Amino acid sequence: MKRFLLTGAALALSSTLAIAGPQSLLPPGFDTPAPAPAPAPSPTPTPRPAPTSEPVVQPLPRRAPTPAPAPAPAPAPRAATSGLPEGFPSLAEIEAMSPEEVDELFGLKPKYDIPPEAQWATRQIGVIGPEEQGFPVDALAAQPASLVRAAITATEGPLVSRWGHILLRRVVASRLNAPQGMDPVDFAALRAGLLNRMGEGQAARALVQDVDSANYNTALANAAFDAYLGTGDVLGICPVLQLKTSLRDDPEWQMARSICASFSGDEQRAERELDRMFYYGLAPRIDVLLAQRYAGAAGQGRRAVNIEWDEVEALNPWRFSLAAALGVEIPEALRTDAENWYNYASVLLPSVPLAQRIAVADEAARAGILSSAAIVDLYSQVWADSEMDARWNARADRLRDAYLAQSPAARMAAIEELWGSDRDYGQQVLTAYAAARMPVAEELAEEAPPLIASMLTAGLDRNAVRWRPVLEPGSEGWGLLAVADPALSEAVPTSALADYVDNDGSTGLRKSRFLFAALAGLGRLEDDAVNDFSRSLGVNLVRESPWSRTIGLAAESQNAALVALLAAVGMQGEGWDRMTGRQLYHIVRALDRAGLNAEARMIAAEAVARG
């Protein structure tokens, strides 16, 4: 078995210390001792008188007066020097500095805010450990830093697969040691940045909080700042700001520093700094106004700050975060034109009105941000809120009927009403556990495919397998179970797969291509069948690329964490039309070979359901 490990050349470190002797601090000439006087002749001893009742006091010998020394010549004038390093700020510049900047200039700022005995090591940084379904701590430790960095940075956009998103979040949030040659803090920054791009601000915030403020660098500060903004926790960055003021120097960083100062009791300084930024236009008007309102919340509220969105053309994380925390309503036009990231962040923020959160809940569920249990909890809040919009209350009532209606027919009717005519995938996530409660019956065979797809959104594969007896070979439901069944050990009949292809009405036979590729990747087709369907469906499983070779080698070495990172690279896109059968084959095959069979089956079933 090949080892997918690359070792770097060892670096030999050597240092020499030049030991210098002590230097005198006295002016020139002062450290030269005066010449010793010539020794005087020894005096003749005088006989000691006999002791008497009172001591005899001998007079001291008189000494000749010492002549006055000649005046020393005046030293030559020298240029006055301040003794300060070159480029040291002037007095006026120092007076304009903040207290933190002055402390940092003169070395008065502490190097850490946690006692040494309580500091955390920069090892195993992350949120979930192996005992919590996380990946092994050394899963990436032996991998080359360049490969891990490339895999993380190359994943920029959303993933087409909900289950791919869930798997990527799990590996990135695991407690991991850094790869060979990579600084652990940089590794944490890379992972937190990826979580931010995925819309997983909560996980990103938890990850950056696993690093002490004293160990922050600019990269981690950037990722942490984005994570705190994404979760509406503006004050979360304050410990880093107080200890590492100079990591950034942009307007948002300066405004955050003023806000932190206000909440630390220095309200006048915060007000003065923000007024200066507003007056000189150092930041957009709306950004400063929001900062002033937020900073003022820490004080006595002596001044009112009116937030005006009239001239604002776009939303940014700073505006979104402060507006959400302050309860300021963002104009609908700005929210409509914003990226999906804002919807993902909104759905997890309790400070955002419930009506806005429920409106984007389906989108977040489709992406993998919300689990089935989480979106049900959100609808439970809607059901308990009598002041919600009537349409949301009606949908919450139907969800309750999907679980608690008296007859299976009534529950099925409620489930189908929630799905809608297009069987929305986000609503299928919502009904996953309600679908699992439905009894297996011949009269419900036509509803079996969407019920199975709904169950598989929550990983309820064993509940879904119960429906096999009522499914026709080659049907849509049969195709889902052909890849999702955890106990299937025999090859899939070629005739059943051919029937599935004949009944496929998807665009360009996309579902058939995905089903064939997934079955081949899971090893559930005979070799002859693989060759035949590869030709008939036009799916070339033999052609390779640098990405497919790399993920194949990672799978061969049984490195599940690296396979998960590389699989995410191949699943980027806005929809399943961006995925090819060949890509799905390599992803499913690599995941299965690396020990992630459950994840491989769920991604395959999702591809068939959503293709």
Characterization of the model:
With 611 residues, the chain is an all-alpha fold. It has 3 domains: 120-336, no CATH class; 353-468, no CATH class; 471-611, no CATH class. Helices cover 50% and strands 0% of the residues. The radius of gyration is 37 Å and the shape is globular. It starts with 90 loop residues before the first helix and ends with a helix. Residues 1-34 and 36-68 have low confidence and may be disordered.
Shape: globular
Q: If you compute it from the alpha carbons, what radius of gyration comes out, rounded to the nearest whole angstrom?
A: 37 Å
- Class inferred from helices and paired strands: mainly alpha
Euclidean distance between termini CA atoms: 35 Å
Q: Please count the helical segments.
A: 31
Enumerate the spans where pLDDT stays under 50 for 5 or more consecutive residues: 1-34, 36-68
Total number of β-strand segments? Answer: 0
Largest sheet entry: none
Helix-strand layout with pairing:
Layout lengths: L90 H5 L3 H7 L39 H10 L7 H11 L11 H15 L2 H8 L9 H13 L7 H6 L7 H13 L3 H14 L4 H12 L20 H10 L5 H5 L3 H8 L6 H6 L1 H7 L4 H13 L5 H15 L3 H12 L5 H6 L1 H5 L11 H9 L4 H5 L10 H9 L9 H10 L6 H12 L5 H11 L8 H11 L3 H10 L11 H13 L3 H14 L1
Helix pairs in contact: 3-29, 4-29, 4-31, 5-6, 5-7, 6-7, 9-10, 9-11, 10-11, 11-12, 17-18, 18-19, 22-24, 24-31, 26-27, 26-30, 26-31, 28-29, 28-30, 29-30, 30-31
